[in-house]
Amino acid sequence: MAWNADLKLDPASGTPVYRQIADAIVAACRDGRLSPGMRLPPTRDLARRLHVNRNTVVAAYEALAADGIVTSHTGRGTFVAEPVAAPAPARAETGDAWPSGFSRAVEGSALAGLLSAYRVATSSEGISFAGSYPAAELMPVERFRVALDAVLARSGAEVLSYGSTAGYAPLREWIAGAMRGRGSDVSADGILITNGSQQALELVFRTLLDRGDPVVVEEPTYTGALSVLGSLGARMVGVALDEEGMRPDLLAVALERHRPRAIYVQPTIHNPTTRVMSRRRRLDILALAERHGCAVVEDDWACDLRFEGEELPALHALDGGRRVIYLSTFSKKLLPGLRVGWAAAPRPVLERLVALKQVADHGSSPLLQAALQEFLRDGGLEEHLARVRPAYRERRDIMLAALGARFPGGVSWTRPQGGLFLWVTLPEGVDGNDLFVAARDRNVLFSRGGLFHSDGSGQGSLRLTYASVAPARIEAGVAVLGSLIRERLAGAAAGPGPRAADGLPIL
Ligand code: PMP
């Protein structure tokens, strides 16, 4: 039955009509009548069918877009965005009886979407290619303990007190020095330490955008950035990538049409596609940003994790730090549990980031920052990188060999020059959501491509992390995925299409 066949609007109800329409769509997402990627009727058609003003339907779609439930694309329509679990565990956890309502960022299915995007597989029996985690068994735990002990012994009361909101000064110095070593023009007072680069993303976008403001993102892009932008009510304008990175022809149109304040990019080992933006493309993107007076938010999460290929300058280095806000993190190259990332930004931006950081948490832990700085000063990072880079390269090669041996023809994948994962494109007739559900039943997890798309697409792709998976388990997990893909290809040749995935959790 069509999701809106029995939709009855009550103009006399206390709930505005646009909200009734939005609620009906949320309900249809919950009970499966609408699923991710489905297109909603054009506003004009739905308005005619419901005998309401078209603006009422527009308002309903906008409210849903602000909640991250649908995404709208000029010329293509409005699509259901996130998978919505039924029944949403979020409702059960928080209780339906809460009397006074919630903000739209965490209402109903918006909450289910956020939780599902971040729920991480914990099954110790399963094989998880999901998440993007460094290898736990390679973590320099002992060396970090020594650094922690040293700072506590030397300056315990200082590092156990409140610190500076912008961050521990010697750590900011170290980071600025490392960035200068890569060609960036930056000093310590241009650095803000954040709780992971996830917080840097949130503070940066909060600083630049108001609700409803457009922002250009790569299509696909990092899930966590999409979640931040969704929760801030930003309007995401996706720009496709080619082999060299974000396509400048499409970017030029998007800038012209939407006049965004910012472009969010990951030039080096893009998450999830692992692409590395060419030097020429880096310059093209900067030139377009310059022409349109637009900021560039550069997420350089993987900068030290390259094990192959030519080192290319960051956009921040190429632009002299004028319109690029640069983010990076110690999570992937070192220890995610420290929750230390940073933003490097021009002074007017940094000032505002610091103000919002103060509002958010009064500053990151001085103890952990000081211990990290001690660890870095003593050469701990170089030593760690010298261990993990070859290990990750080896795991990548094991995964590539397993894919070559186990995956049927028609599936393609990337050969990353670094980082923690690779990106797989499925052949026609194999649906990534359906595969996810089947693989989960066999205790194998991966990150569905749909998580990385702002437009509800991505069912034809998946991301497989190798870095945190032991070599024998890489082979076993890929074998399971290979056989499931073969089954689906055989089924697609013989019968009806894949079933829509139900209540997808995770990752
Ligand atoms: N940016 C990208 C591209 C990421 O993949 C991640 C984590 N997966 C982050 C930012 C945030 O990481 P963290 O907060 O741990 O620094």
Strand order of the largest sheet: 4-11-10-9-8-5-6-7
- Architecture per CATH nomenclature, i.e. the level-2 architecture of the largest domain: 3-Layer(aba) Sandwich
Share in β-strands: 5-15%
Provide the domain count.
Answer: 3
CATH topology term of the largest domain: Aspartate Aminotransferase, domain 2
Overall 3D form: globular
Largest sheet: 8 strands, mixed
| Mean pLDDT figure | 89
Describe the structure.
There is one protein chain. With 507 residues, the protein is α/β, with parallel strands linked by helices. It has 3 domains: 79 residues, Arc Repressor Mutant, subunit A; 141 residues, Aspartate Aminotransferase, domain 1 (Alpha-Beta Complex); 238 residues, Aspartate Aminotransferase, domain 2 (3-Layer(aba) Sandwich). Helices cover 44% and strands 13% of the residues. The chain has 17 helices and 16 strands. An 8-stranded mixed sheet has the order 4-11-10-9-8-5-6-7, sandwiched between helices. The protein has a 4-stranded antiparallel sheet with strand order 12-13-16-15. A two-stranded antiparallel sheet has the order 1-2. Strand 12 and strand 13 form a beta hairpin. Helix 5 runs antiparallel to helix 9 and helix 6 crosses helix 14. The longest helix is centred in the C-terminal third of the chain and has 27 residues. The C terminus is likely disordered. It binds 4'-deoxy-4'-aminopyridoxal-5'-phosphate. The site of 4'-deoxy-4'-aminopyridoxal-5'-phosphate (PMP) has 14 residues, from helix 8.
